[in-house]
Amino acid sequence: MSKEKWLFDYTNRYQNLAFAISYYRKKRNLTQEQLAEMAGVTRQHIGSIEAPNMYRGISMDAFFNIASILEVEPYLLLKFNPEE
Known about the structure:
Layout: H1 11-27, H2 32-39, H3 43-50, H4 60-69, H5 74-79
Helix pairs in contact: 2-3
């Protein structure tokens, strides 16, 4: 099987994840810096995760930490749709 068949485009998923983290962070009245400190990452890392055009990968540990801090089930971050 050629390598090209394994390449997938997750642009929309990364954008929705960025919007979800930003939405729930703001809903909890947290700054990027506060969330970063609590999650054990840098503010720049949170900023790049939330940037809708960066498509920055996120570790599962960071993902679960962020979901816990934001007090949302992880699947809600992945299911988030800003149009709804």
